[in-house]
Amino acid sequence: MENKGFDKDSLYRIVSMIFGTIFMVSFVMLILHFMLFKKNDENLKDVQKIADVDTEVEEDEAEETTPLLKTIDFSALQEKYPDIYAWVYVPGTLVNYPILQSGEDVDTDYYLEHNLDGTAGLPGCIYTQKVNSKDFTDRDTIVYGHNMRNDTMFGSLHNYEDETFFNEHPYIYIYTPKQNLVYQIFAAYASDDKLILDYYDYFQDDATFLGYLDDVQHNTSLKSNTNQEMQFTVEDKILTLSTCNGSSSTRYLVIGRLLSDAEVSNLGEETADSVQTEAENALHIMSGEEQVNEQGE
Q1: pTM
Q2: What angle do CA 37, 39, 45 make, to 5 degrees?
Q3: Cβ–Cβ < 8 Å for 257, 184
Q4: Cα separation of 123 and 101, whole Å?
Q5: Which three-class secondary structure state does DSSP give residue 55?
Q6: Which of the following CATH numbers is that of domain 43-281: 2.40.260.10, 3.20.20.150, 1.10.150.120, 3.50.7.10?
Q7: Which residues pair with 240 in a beta bridge?
């Protein structure tokens, strides 16, 4: 009787076609993924050029002793990307990016999975949720960014897992259209994934806020580095940089306390009049002729 089933050659051709199709689809997706990353990298370089910032990171960078102030051209930035409202810079890392917050009627975590040009996908943007004000007057302003494998976005924050790096790079700089802010880092560690502001009721209670700072400062969690000499009051404001930590249930946090004018002036004469001033009065104005160097992969 004639065998009406598939012979071995037919089965082999079908399997080959299936695997060939899977390979081609995967290849096309990989190319599209690469093109998206390349496009967003170009957008970020464009933003850094518009903002007039130097993106070079010196590997042999000397120990940081005084804050570095710069002027950001927010008018030009916001004309092209209106959701940009601040800039974050962390010396010794690749963190030198605009901070965004989504507009009305847009999801608060929109920029977790959307790029500067509005395209969906990684690496997203550096952003804050709408629960935080844009003037950094909240007790804790939490800034989110992805932990990219090429150390872009917030990937290089993991440098703070090294104790020497933690001690030699103690500052985070925030620039806004109206002020420059300097935060001194007092903790960097792996935490659980709770939403901090929700969990602590937005730190409306003084005792809760001070208790949280004490817990952070004296935590013994994995990858923890802390400055246990820093003192706190109920008037303090902190900044938390939050990124992924290799699992969906943990986060890596770098946390700093906002320094007062007097504290900044004590760090060096170059910064005496810079904090809390108009951005155009910053003492270290970055030259428009400076080359914007490529970063990341």
Answers
A1: 0.76
A2: 100
A3: yes
A4: 16
A5: coil
A6: 2.40.260.10
A7: 142, 255
